[in-house]
């Protein structure tokens, strides 16, 4: 079926179907808007800040992937405890997810940074410990808050995923004499992750949109760099528009990347 | 740090305590959440109808609106809408010959949350309207109902059971998104909490107290949502 000429015609037909006259007009208007923003806006600050913007993007992505990876590690036991744990594990896990999901992330972030941050120096001996250089900085608090938030939301997702694995598959594992840990490692976890993958990808994109909050506790991520630009140049529109454009680009890249992996691993409808 | 570990007197309602300040902040939070959510529902209703039944240009513009709002962090949107929105409004008023106006933080906050929520409600309501059995709308048309009557008598009542879980989720997001207005200096619960904590240096106490207030709001909302959801599903076959 995949004849090169036919797919090309197919693609051309699809493009012409998408590219209706009104769309061409809308695209022209959009291009004109962007062009006028570039021509009439003040962009002379951009070259000076370019290295810092690049660094900001790296910090943002580090916060995103760091908190997503760490958060997922916590989410697995949180989900498992809620599905199969004894009550003294089930209740704390459920309470943790409810409390974190029921309060704003900004408040949690400030609680950690200002609250715990102000408490740590009063603990004797902590100043001489190896942790102190990290506790004095802002980014560990940002990473911790993002991780906790991601873990709580994903814990809920993993709970559903663990509960949704057909019990026959687990019984089959037990019937083959697998130990409970082996059943978990070979069947339960892979199947649950497999089922939850589309949701996890969506949540990771949502997590990207939470990362700029760390700028409020002086972590210089992408958003923090742009705030600095706004303070130093007194510009209202240009830095914010650039910021929105960069975030849209990052979101688009993430979505395309995840879609590529999702298509390679068929996950929907299993 | 004096003798008692937790100084409950700081949460007293009268001036030496900060309880009254926190509650006023919470009142602002509630007003913005309710206002922004309602505005979002209004935008979402028009957005959903526009996406389903509107012309090609309206559809594409709405697609751009929902895509952009869902791709850009709420914090950035709030900054853009808050600063650029008030600035644009003032420039417009100046060119029209009126003087500058001071836009109240409350109005700006409701506007900002409403625009963000509107994009998400558009998608929720669009999905809900699409899941109405088409025969129900055909029946209305066969009886000679006007499009408006079909909307109010059939579309809206029939889509509600499908829309309520998504809309309930949006309400919970709206209550938490109001905290982001602290960044632009609107004195809602999170910002007044930070001010109280900074003034007294009892950070943990105040942030915990504010967290308890938010959590109460969420839990009370959850109970009410449960009622509404059960009521709206009357007559449906039981799932599970």
UniProtKB/TrEMBL annotation, chain A:
Belongs to the binding-protein-dependent transport system permease family. HisMQ subfamily. It comes from the Bacteria. Its main location: membrane. Residues 57-258 form the ABC transmembrane type-1 domain. CDD domains: TM_PBP2 (cd06261). It is found in: Cell inner membrane; Cell membrane. This is Polar amino acid transport system permease protein. The lineage of its organism: Bacteria, Pseudomonadati, Pseudomonadota, Alphaproteobacteria, Hyphomicrobiales. The chain crosses the membrane at residues 24-43, 55-81, 93-114, 240-261. It holds the Pfam family BPD_transp_1.
Automatic annotation (TrEMBL), chain B:
The lineage of its organism: Bacteria, Pseudomonadati, Pseudomonadota, Alphaproteobacteria, Hyphomicrobiales. Keywords: Cell inner membrane, Cell membrane, Membrane, Transmembrane, Transmembrane helix, Transport. It comes from Aquamicrobium terrae. InterPro entries: AA_ABC_transptr_permease_3TM (IPR010065), ABC_transp_permease_HisMQ (IPR051613), MetI-like (IPR000515), MetI-like_sf (IPR035906). Pfam families: BPD_transp_1. The keyword Hydrolase does not apply. Residues 26-225 form the ABC transmembrane type-1 domain. It is found in: Cell inner membrane; Cell membrane. SUPFAM superfamilies: MetI-like. It comes from the Bacteria. The keyword Transmembrane applies. Belongs to the binding-protein-dependent transport system permease family. HisMQ subfamily. It is a multi-pass membrane protein. This is Polar amino acid transport system permease protein. The chain crosses the membrane at residues 26-49, 61-83, 103-120, 150-174, 203-228.
């Amino acid at each position: 079926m995949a004849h090169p000429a036919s797919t090309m015609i197919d693609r051309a037909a699809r493009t012409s179907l998408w590219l209706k006259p009104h769309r061409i007009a809308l695209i022209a208007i959009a291009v004109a808007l962007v062009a006028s923003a570039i021509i009439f806006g003040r962009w002379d600050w951009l070259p000076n800040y370019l290295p810092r913007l690049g660094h900001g993007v790296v910090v943002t992505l580090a916060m995103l992937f760091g908190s997503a990876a760490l958060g997922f590690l916590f989410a697995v036991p949180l989900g498992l405890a809620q599905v199969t744990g004894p009550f003294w594990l089930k209740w704390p896990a459920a309470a943790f997810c409810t409390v974190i999901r029921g309060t704003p992330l900004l408040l949690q972030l400030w609680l950690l940074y200002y609250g715990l941050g102000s408490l740590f120096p009063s603990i004797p001996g902590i100043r001489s410990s190896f942790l102190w250089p990290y506790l004095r900085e802002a980014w560990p608090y940002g990473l911790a808050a993002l991780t906790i938030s991601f873990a709580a939301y994903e814990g809920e997702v993993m709970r559903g995923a663990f509960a949704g694995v057909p019990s026959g598959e687990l019984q089959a594992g037990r019937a083959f004499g697998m130990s409970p840990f082996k059943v978990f490692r070979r069947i339960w976890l892979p199947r649950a992750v497999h089922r939850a993958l589309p949701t996890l990808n969506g949540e990771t994109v949502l997590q990207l949109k939470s990362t700029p909050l760390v700028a409020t506790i002086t972590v210089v991520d992408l958003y923090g760099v742009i705030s600095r630009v706004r303070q130093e140049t007194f510009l209202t529109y240009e830095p914010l528009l650039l910021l929105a454009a960069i975030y849209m680009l990052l979101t688009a890249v993430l979505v395309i990347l995840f879609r590529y992996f999702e298509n390679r691993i068929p996950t929907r409808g299993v | 740090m004096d003798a008692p570990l937790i100084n409950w007197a700081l949460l007293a309602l009268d001036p030496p305590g900060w309880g009254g300040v926190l509650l006023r902040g919470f009142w602002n939070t509630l007003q913005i959440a309710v206002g922004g959510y309602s505005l979002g529902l209004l935008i979402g209703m028009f957005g959903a109808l526009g996406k389903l039944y509107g012309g090609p240009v309206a559809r594409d513009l709405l697609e751009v609106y929902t895509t952009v709002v869902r791709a850009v962090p709420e914090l950035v949107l709030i900054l853009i809408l808050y600063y650029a929105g008030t600035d644009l409004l003032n420039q417009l008023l100046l060119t029209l010959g009126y003087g500058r106006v001071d836009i109240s933080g409350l109005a700006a906050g409701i506007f900002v949350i409403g625009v963000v929520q509107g994009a998400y409600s558009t998608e929720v309501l669009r999905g809900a309207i699409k899941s109405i059995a088409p025969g129900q709308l055909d029946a209305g048309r066969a009886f000679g109902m006007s499009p408006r009557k079909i909307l109010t008598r059939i579309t809206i009542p029939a889509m509600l059971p499908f829309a309520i879980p998504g809309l309930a989720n949006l309400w919970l997001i709206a209550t938490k998104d109001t905290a982001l207005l602290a960044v632009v200096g609107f004195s809602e619960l999170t910002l007044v909490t930070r001010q109280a904590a900074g003034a007294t240096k009892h950070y943990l106490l105040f942030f915990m107290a504010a967290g308890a207030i938010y959590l109460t709001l969420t839990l009370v909302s959850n109970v009410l949502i449960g009622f509404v959801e059960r009521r709206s599903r009357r007559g449906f076959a039981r799932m599970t």
